Amino acid sequence: MRHSYIILLLTFGLFEKAFSDAGNCVKYDVDIQLTSGQKIRGFVYAGSYETKFQFQDISFLDYLNKIIRSDTLYVFKNIRQLKFPTTNYGREKCEFHFDAADESMRIPKKEIKEAKVVSYTVCNNCDVADEKEGYYWNGIYPTVITELNKTEIDLLQTRPLATIAFGNGQSDSADEYWMISYSQEYKQADLEKLKNDFLVEAGKLMRERKWDAVQAEYKALKDKLRKKKVVLFKIGFAI
Questions:
Q1: Residue of 99, 82, 101 lying closest to 27 (CA atoms)
Q2: Cis peptide before 160 (omega within 30 of 0)
Q3: Mean predicted confidence (pLDDT) in 109-114
């Protein structure tokens, strides 16, 4: 039986440089058909130095194959924009909102038979759409958070009691962590202590090259806080 999904595909082929390297980022709404006959409706994030995909020059599937280095597409379902947390670390002064998905899957590129563009827009709420000059990338790497469950995503639609962001170099890691409290037991000072304790331990393990232990430490803290209505997640930026 054929199925139809609303999904998001992130294509990171041309986002291999640091944040300071500007360019264009376009989000395409596409119809995809697999070689099995399955049909998929979703979104593709594509980065390049061109204004946008030139429809008359090349098929969209060929375009995807050209800009995506990996042989696999990551597929995200049930995408929702989070009201909290927000950040303004992009190039412009803009209140940026993350997207989150409570389900994800992978599609081998060789299984895609056809991809057609339905429409297109900017990659996030802080990017600027300009048909002449380009879909300016604000410097915030397109990201979909996949480690939140539905309950946590629902929580993040309401204002938290305390919020803290950390990492991105502070623990010898390119990840940025967010800790958001909805519990009276965990206020700002409590989050600061949790952050400091985690960074000390994670930094020690990283220096010892105990990568699996770092992940285990993170998971243990995340599971503990989840029971206390404190949301912890990380964003892995591909630098």
A1: 99
A2: no
A3: 94
Please count the CA atoms within 13 angstroms of the CA of 81 that sit on its side-chain side: 10
Query: HSE-up of 150 (CA within 13 Å, CB side)?
Result: 3
Contacts of 5 (CB under 8 A, 6+ apart): 40, 41, 42, 75, 77
The model carries a pTM of: 0.77
How many residues make up the chain in this entry? Answer: 239
Average pLDDT of the chain is 80
Contact 155, 182 (CB under 8 A): yes
What's the maximum distance between 2 C-alpha atoms anywhere in the chain?
A: 58
The span from the first CA to the last CA of the chain, in angstroms, equals 40
Cα(1)–Cα(186) distance, integer angstroms:
48
- Asked if residue 30 has pLDDT above 90, the reply is no
DSSP state, 111? G
Q: Phi first, then psi: what are they for 212, rounded to 5°? A: -65, -35
Specify whether the CB–CB gap between 45 and 15 falls below 8 A: no
Tens of pLDDT, residue by residue over 164-217, are 999 755 444 446 899 999 999 999 999 999 999 999 999 999 999 999 999 999
Give pLDDT tens digits for 121-162: 877 777 777 766 666 666 667 777 889 999 999 999 999 999
Q: Give the separation between CA 69 and CA 34, rounded to whole angstroms.
A: 19
